[in-house]
Amino acid sequence: MSGREWELPFTVLEANEQYYVLESRLEQSEVVKGLVWDVYLIIHAEQSVSLEETQQADTKPEDDFDEGEAAEEETLTDADTDNSTENDSEDDPEAEETIEERGILEKKYRMRTKHPFLELGSAVDPRTKQAITPYTTNKGNLSFKIHDRGPVIKVEEAELDNRGNVTLEGFFFSPFPYENNVLEKTLVIGGPEGIEERVIPYQTIERDDLSPYFQDQQPHRATGFKVKLHVRDLCSTDENSTFRLYFKWEDEDTLGPDQGDLAIPLQLISFKRRINKHVILNTDSGKKKVSLTARKKTRSIVIKVVQYSFVQELKKKVRRTLTKVKQSKRTKKAYMAAFRMAGYLPVKKNLVMFESFLGKQYSCNPRGIYEYLKVNRPDLELVWSVDGRNIGKFENAGIPYAKRFSIKWLFKMARAHYWVTNSRMPLWIPKSKHTVYFQTWHGTPLKRLAADMDEVHMPGTNTKKYKANFHKESSKWDYLLSPNAYSTEIFRRAFNFHKEVVEVGYPRNDVLYTKNSPEDIKELKEKLELPQDKKVILYAPTWRDDQFYGKGRYKFDLELDLLQLKEKFGEDYVIVLRMHYLVAENFDLSPYEGFAYDFSYHGDINELYLVSDVMITDYSSVFFDYANLKRPMIFFVYDIESYRDKLRGFYFDFEQYAPGPLVKTTDEVIAAIEKFESDGFTIHSEIFDDFYERFCYLENGQSSHKAVQKVF
User: Fold this and answer.
1) pTM greater than 0.70
2) CA R_g for the chain
3) What average pLDDT does this structure show over 547-571?
4) Long-range Cβ pairs for the range 557-562 (8 Å, 24+)
5) What average pLDDT score do residues 530-546 get?
6) At 179, is the secondary structure helix, strand, or coil?
7) Would you give the DSSP letter of residue 78?
8) CA–CA separation, 650 vs 687, rounded Å?
9) How confident is the model over 633-648, as pLDDT tens digits?
10) Alpha-carbon span 390 to 379, nearest angstrom
11) Segment (H or E) for 227
């Protein structure tokens, strides 16, 4: 998961025309805490590949139809997915082909395994006290994880009978003596908010049959369990509910939550099997459909209780059937062919298609241009490309849209005269000759981009493939928006872009000049339901390439101590969290009620800029935009050495020229806020003045007008 690759020598024990038997030794001293390692076999073919074959391999439509954006711009699409520490980044178990520059074919195979009990072979290093645990991923691949805590809890059998009785059988085990000997183990079931968690009794069973799977030096063995649960007890409310089952391992000698306490969801053991059983029960609150399922991504066991309706069930079956048809390879190929054919239809010269962050938002530079055109160019038809999960936002606001990848979207995109977007489009989308592609991008670069990156640490890609795909996409752009001369130089080189750059500032920042008045800010605070009598701290960090659950599924560890900030500033301040769209997770802010607000999914970050008195960020490009307000900024860079030297690298000496203090701890954040407060939140810094003159000199509220005059 760190992006490192580690080659392991192996010995061939047996070989014939059909298979090889390989043996390899994994030295635990080589691995690093907190990582997940995936295992591959790479074969280099000795014959060279013709140019024609190379081109065919590079343009297979099924390879990138589902890819959408590059790895750093993909997002989690399964709303029913739990956070998981396992990494299974392979979408296709077949060989992944790449073409080397010298014409040698390379095939990369994910190492498969059908072994359901691999985790029982976990071993603890007596020196580091860390465990290395092999496991079979959801898709049947071999991986290893390195960790310093955490038991294994698996369900082998799960049954739901016609009377609504659930029976679960499985085993639990931990390689760590403390967890086995000290922590008390209870099985609990938790429902939605407002439903109290309850303890479920279970029976323990000796499991000598699992002993052969343990390491010889491992003194602890697995304990079997069996639990029976009557789901009729869960049907007492009229609301639809989802119940999750956990094993809790708690330190009974410590009052309150303890650092050693663990809550592990029950997971189905076999990657092949799926549980999807249901029963219809007559209850006092009507007919209920009770389902026992294992979630697709994590295999965690859940019980769902919903009101039963024959009509609704029929509709669901029809939708599922249509979804399967839509997602079939044959349908995808037909859709792509239709897109190409539609490109030969007459152009709609007045049609402009907009998209922001893969259709998830009504925001950024496309929004600034759209709102200017809406007022000043009534002759144009303005339509937004919208991800299906975000349609409600556009419908409620009365904004014209086409659902991304729908038939309507296909014909509008293929015939549009203009595309305006701030992120890359899927590679398979062909651009017609009549279409003008205006790429607005979404920030002034601090971190290295595309061709300027030495190494790519994102899941599902590698450095060479990432750069090749990026340049393939940028070759379609006709215009590229730039906020300043500094960005223009970088964009041309990093994006390999040789057409016209529109260097006029960012349209998204116009509002920072036109709406920056006490009256407007008061109105915005009312809209956002923020207290008028308190100052606002905005926390807007970026994402980390090497922190993810899997391909396109990034996570973020909140290092800022909100409790400490609340204790210090809770009387006079509130803090607003605005996470990057790739890591906008649902943070539990209930302990900080009245102080911390999560606005990660708020459409317009400019509104958060305007209501804030000080911003905390890190390496996010938001500070280039926020500087237009000439308000204080704090750079919380607890991992700057890793980010600077390993992940991305910077285009300029960030540590010397950052327009605000660089801090690494919450204590230092507090001290910086107190310093700004004592100065009346005014900035007295030559570094800031120089920064403003270098990066914000083009922006004065007229960038939308200038961009439209240039391109349209």
Assistant:
1) no
2) 28
3) 68
4) 558/587, 559/636, 559/638, 560/616, 560/636, 560/666, 560/669, 561/666, 562/589, 562/591, 562/592, 562/595, 562/596
5) 82
6) helix
7) -
8) 18
9) 999 988 787 676 655 5
10) 27
11) strand 223-230
